[in-house]
């Protein structure tokens, strides 16, 4: 019979432990190295970085997303965007070295929740009431102007093929060329709406003294709000981000700094 010590030693041997590897699929910018810029992708990347779990990034350009994901056997979601990123591949190799098990998580929320369940510390509060409230606040006050002033210029930071894909696909839901859609939003008062929206944002984020919505405690609602800010910062035109920074003032500064201090903004290029 094995002694208790031997049993523990065997359990601790690297070749007898189950291992899990994460591969994170993200959309690149045209910079070298590429940078993470998409709000949906940030909802998941922020959690990976916050939890400090090891992962590797695979960059997939817009037109290649459906090809790459279909090739892995991931089913289409149908509609205008049958395949989307972020996606995370979880490869688990059993302790006995048998065939690895592969799981694909194909939605940012599912990735974030999976990570929080499997890596409980540091924790993220997934209370749906706060998340719903934050999303409702953002959608009612800022989403429309972020689409007009940030999304419409995302092609400026995209590699050539991705920018072409953007101009081919987005007019289908904008019902007009991207340039005209942006102008329409500006004519409808996008700048003023953004300024007013940021006032509501500041009040919402700062209501418990900051840096996060509930004070010191990080929630998934904060992660969502960070995703939108990273979208503007990384993919929006410089002047838009500068305006947002100005309107966001101390509350936005503290919010971003607090995430930075937790290591969340460290991994952006790999
Ligand atoms: N609900 C999804 C939405 C993700 C999403 O819309 N991703 C966009 C990039 S921001 C995408 O991959 N689009 C692919 C396309 O346009 O073909 C999530 O949050 O994971």
Automatic annotation (TrEMBL):
<protein>
    <recommendedName>
        <fullName>GST N-terminal domain-containing protein</fullName>
    </recommendedName>
</protein>
<dbReference type="Pfam" id="PF22041">
    <property type="entry name" value="GST_C_7"/>
</dbReference>
<dbReference type="InterPro" id="IPR004045">
    <property type="entry name" value="Glutathione_S-Trfase_N"/>
</dbReference>
<dbReference type="InterPro" id="IPR036249">
    <property type="entry name" value="Thioredoxin-like_sf"/>
</dbReference>
<feature type="domain" description="GST N-terminal">
    <location>
        <begin position="28"/>
        <end position="123"/>
    </location>
</feature>
<dbReference type="Pfam" id="PF13409">
    <property type="entry name" value="GST_N_2"/>
</dbReference>
<dbReference type="InterPro" id="IPR054416">
    <property type="entry name" value="GST_UstS-like_C"/>
</dbReference>
<dbReference type="InterPro" id="IPR036282">
    <property type="entry name" value="Glutathione-S-Trfase_C_sf"/>
</dbReference>
């Amino acid at each position: 019979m094995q002694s208790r010590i031997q049993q523990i030693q065997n359990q601790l041997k690297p070749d007898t432990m189950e291992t899990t590897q994460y591969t994170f699929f993200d959309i690149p910018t045209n910079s070298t190295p590429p940078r993470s810029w998409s709000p949906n992708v940030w909802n998941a990347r922020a959690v990976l970085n916050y939890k400090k779990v090891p992962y590797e990034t695979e960059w997939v350009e817009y037109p290649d997303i459906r090809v790459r994901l279909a090739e892995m056997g991931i089913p289409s979601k149908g509609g205008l965007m049958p395949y989307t990123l972020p996606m995370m591949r979880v490869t688990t190799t059993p302790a006995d070295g048998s065939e690895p098990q592969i799981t694909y998580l194909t939605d940012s929320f599912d990735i974030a929740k999976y990570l929080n369940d499997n890596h409980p510390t540091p924790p993220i509060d997934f209370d749906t009431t706060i998340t719903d409230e934050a999303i409702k606040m953002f959608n009612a006050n800022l989403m429309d102007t972020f689409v007009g002033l940030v999304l419409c210029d995302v092609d400026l930071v995209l590699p050539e093929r991705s920018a072409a894909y953007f101009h081919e696909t987005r007019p289908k839901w904008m019902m007009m060329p991207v340039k005209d859609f942006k102008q329409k939003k500006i004519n409808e008062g996008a700048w003023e709406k953004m300024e007013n929206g940021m006032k509501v944002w500041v009040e919402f984020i700062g209501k418990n003294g900051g840096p996060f919505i509930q004070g010191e405690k990080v929630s998934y609602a904060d992660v969502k709000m960070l995703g939108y800010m990273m979208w503007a910062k990384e993919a929006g035109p410089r002047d838009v981000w500068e305006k947002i920074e100005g309107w966001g003032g101390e509350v936005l500064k503290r919010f971003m700094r607090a995430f930075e201090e937790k290591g969340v903004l460290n991994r952006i290029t790999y």
